[in-house]
């Protein structure tokens, strides 16, 4: 049995323990312990019923730690060895865990960590490595998160929008080290989409697939960013794009537009173009108009200005940009790009260099510095 | 979450309010200071915000490549170097405001007379990796 299949069982097993009377925090710990044992024992002695095995072992771990707890507190052992009668599995424990782990009382970082552990079945060490913090720090982040939601009823319905924000955060973190967080976010969103019929869940899944399909083309092997227009489209994963487009079309057909569907539609239009020149910028601007209407987001307005520059020419793009707050992230980079397209390499080079100094990430800084260097070399030559 | 470096300087930062050099503190004041730093780091670990901390010796030498087949060229240490890093702490926090709050707390470590040093710490954001959705 591979690790992924094992991890898929985690939320349901936590659900069984909670249903039998364990509190969420203790159940989650017990299932982690059982996972560790499964990884140790299964290669030599794989159970016929993996889920049943996990439930049995996790329940035993839970009882052990509950007994240790109560005896530490010099109290009578109240937890019975036999599970209380009741449904073995609830309507959808996995779905409930998504809501609990994204509960609005949690900070985004806590919700992310808890979701990756309790829904994703990752170990604390794996999550710590993915976020480049010590394991002890991540362990504390997770146990605090569990304390925060300890008063929340397990079967309390939640808001799907909060879950989507958490999954989107995981996706956007990308990948560093062994754990590919973008792939993990897709797996978790796919699992959610299979459980709940909701246009925005589908919209987010489509958005992730359409972006992920282009990942091999987005950076060079040495880590340089490749702008969309210069990407080798032969490297795009056409099957993943086709799946993303299918998921999106099914969602749009239900006629309840949301921000993730609008973003996915923009990504789909990019993915649909065989060459950069064939991109349907007019439609992309229309989708950005929808996105701005739905979210009012300044980032969406900024991206819209760049798209206007492609659809109606750089002057129109610069005019749209002039209406926005110049302190917006990437405003200077967008201005540099539009000025170059407008035939003003002097201004563009200056703005690229300025944008590089303010860039929030190393790959972006390098990319913008290289743009400035390219123009400066041309101006000298 | 975003990572920040809290930089402590031997020299180069503006003078702290409680500016008595460490070698003139009492042993109890030194113990209290060290304990404060430890407690601070332990508390950050418990809030899930601690990443790393290190202290540097004041000695330092500049090194550069001096040509193929030659040993590295060295220079210094320079007594007059304007800016000298003493150590750092790396934190992983939800907001910039939180980074400032923690730096201020660290700057309140007790010094001579058990009073806060009010030393100036420099807060520097890390450059992160690229996020996936940028177009």
UniProtKB/TrEMBL annotation, chain A:
Residues 97-148 form the RNA polymerase sigma factor 70 region 4 type domain. The keyword Transcription regulation applies. Residues 5-69 form the RNA polymerase sigma-70 region domain. Gene3D superfamilies: 1.10.1740.10, Winged helix-like DNA-binding domain superfamily/Winged helix DNA-binding domain. Residues 161-251 form the DUF6596 domain. GO terms for molecular function: DNA binding; sigma factor activity. GO terms for biological process: DNA-templated transcription initiation. PANTHER family: BLL6612 PROTEIN, BLL6612 PROTEIN-RELATED. Belongs to the sigma-70 factor family. ECF subfamily. This is RNA polymerase subunit sigma-24. It comes from Nonomuraea phyllanthi.
From TrEMBL, chain B:
InterPro entries: Dimeric_a/b-barrel, YCII. Coiled coil: none annotated. Residues 20-108 form the YCII-related domain. It holds the Pfam family YCII. SUPFAM superfamilies: Dimeric alpha+beta barrel. It comes from the Bacteria. Belongs to the YciI family. This is YCII-related domain-containing protein. It comes from Nonomuraea phyllanthi.
